[in-house]
Amino acid sequence: MRVFSGFIVFIIAISLSACNSASQDSEADQKGSENSQPDSTAPQGQIAPSDRLDSLDAVLKSDPNNLEALTLRGKKRMKRGDLQNALFDFQRVQEIDSTYQDMLLALGELYMRRNQSRQARDAWLSCANNSPQALDCRINLGRLYASVQDYKPALNFLNEAIEIDPYNAEAHLLKGVVIRDGVRDTNLALTFIQRATELDQEYVEALDLMGVMLADKEDTLAPYYYKRILNIDPERWDIYYKLGVYYMNQDEINRALEAYTKATQINPYDADSYYNMGYLFTTQVKDYREAKKYFSQSIQAKPNNNYKAYYGRAYAYEMLGDVINAEKDYLKSLELLPLYQPAREGLARVRKSKQ
């Protein structure tokens, strides 16, 4: 039995690689910028910046062309949501050295946050072209090209990233996604995604995608990857939902119900798990009172646009001989989706039975 649900099983959505973070505040920084000491490894005549914003301002007051300080201040401003002043800092760095890698990486992220993907692409291309070892810029370019379904350059940049760092889990995951979507080779894609899970044992996004893709192939290894996620984060109700879908498609009804129940215990607003339990009690268990209960809980969790749950409850009422409430719910289902044919047919049945 193959069950289709309105719930979107998986959307891969990995956030942009964070720019290289600054080192943690030292004890001297915590006492105030006036006590901070220059780093002995800094070039002569240049002050090594602390990552405190006030300390960065002080550094730049005495050394306005300090590329590290300007870039770090831009990153901190961007993190605070001050994108315009962050851009000013990055543009100042560009005026001094347009190839400065850390700035170009951060500038691309800023442009993405402003929905300016072309400018982000140009920043990361400049970074990659001028820095043969710029790993993060290449990963970001791979992700960006993949997002617009331009898979050839995406694959090229991800291959370069893996050549730079053969142990980078994110690059392997993204390459797997590009091969799945661009090359349409699921088995080859799985080898790269699995490699990502080996490189990072707690890489939840990779574990999730492995579970979803294997479940789609009805592979019995799918639960293994879902359960690895639950070992990392037992509160992932959405993973319990996916487990339920897998077991339901394998006709393992008790396991499916157990997984759906756990999902709703963690998230009482999980309308899809309630609906699927109602579906199972309707089609497999034939317990229409229990089915009605779960459909009602699905409606309570998601009152709007839940036409399927209203239809399911209407059918349960119909099977229980309650044609009045069945008619009401069939009408409600059609109110939400007027062309929903099963509800139209159900409504016709109960009205005919009342004649």
Please characterize this protein's 3D structure:
Helix content is 69%, strand content 0%. With 355 residues, it is mainly alpha-helical. The chain has a domain at 268-355: Tetratricopeptide repeat domain (Serine Threonine Protein Phosphatase 5, Tetratricopeptide repeat, Alpha Horseshoe), CATH 1.25.40. Helix 3 packs antiparallel against helix 4 and helix 18 packs antiparallel against helix 19. The radius of gyration is 27 Å and the shape is elongated. It starts with 26 loop residues before the first helix and ends with a helix. The model is unreliable at 1-47 (pLDDT under 50).
Topology:
Blueprint: H1 27-31, H2 53-62, H3 67-79, H4 83-96, H5 101-113, H6 117-130, H7 135-147, H8 151-164, H9 169-183, H10 186-199, H11 204-216, H12 222-232, H13 237-249, H14 253-266, H15 271-285, H16 288-301, H17 307-319, H18 323-336, H19 341-354
Helix pairs in contact: 2-3, 3-4, 3-5, 4-5, 5-6, 6-7, 7-8, 7-9, 8-9, 9-10, 10-11, 11-12, 12-13, 13-14, 13-15, 14-15, 15-16, 15-17, 16-17, 17-18, 17-19, 18-19
Count of separate DSSP helical elements: 19
Radius of gyration: 27 Å
Which class of secondary structure composition applies to the elements?
A: mainly alpha
* Major sheet description: none
CATH architecture of the domain at 268-355: Alpha Horseshoe
